[in-house]
Every structure is written in structure tokens, then in C-alpha cells.
Amino acid sequence: MMYQRERTRRLHLKDVANYVHLPITEAAKELQICPTALKKVCRKHGMLRWPYRKIKSIDRTISNLQRELRSGTAEGATKVEARISRLVAERARICAGLPP
């Protein structure tokens, strides 16, 4: 028990950032800590919510926009491409553990 507390005390967002694409329960299993401890680590470093759902939403939006570009139904292809690049940058920022 003491070992687990010491390990969670030393966790940083850069350690957790590799797992934000997973649901919090799966990420906790991968890190071999309980979900509550993972939440505490995140809150300690300023991440108020687990970003899994936000990342999935961004991924869905990107794939929909790419499908529109391929089918040719997107009006203003440059605007769509710019939006895709903004979404990719936002996803990268979230995955790095930075606030949105």
C-alpha cells in the first residue's frame, strides 16, 4: 500500500499523457493504480476532467470532415482543411496533458 502511494505521488502529467486516449478505468489499469488515485494526480496538475471523451469527439469530427473532403461535398475546402488542422493541434495539446 505504501509503495502504491509513493508511486502515485511521483506521477506527473507527462506519465499520464500516454494514456488519455483510453477511458479512465483502462488507463488506471495500465498504470496499475486505482481510478481515484489517477483523478487525484490529474487534478493536482491542473487537469480537471479526464479528456477521453473530448479526444474521441475530436477524432469523430476530423474523420467526418475528411470524408466530406474526399466525397467533394465540402464547400470551401481550404476552410475545412484549416479546421482539420486546428482540431489536430487541439488533440495534440490535450494528449500532451495541456489544458484545452
TrEMBL record:
It comes from the Eukaryota. Residues 1-78 form the RWP-RK domain. PROSITE patterns: RWP_RK. The keyword Acyltransferase does not apply. Keywords: Coiled coil, DNA-binding, Nucleus, Transcription, Transcription regulation. InterPro entries: RKD-like (IPR044607), RWP-RK_dom (IPR003035). One of its GO terms (molecular function) is DNA-binding transcription factor activity. The keyword Nucleus applies. Putative transcription factor. This is RWP-RK domain-containing protein. It comes from Ensete ventricosum. The lineage of its organism: Eukaryota, Viridiplantae, Streptophyta, Embryophyta, Tracheophyta.
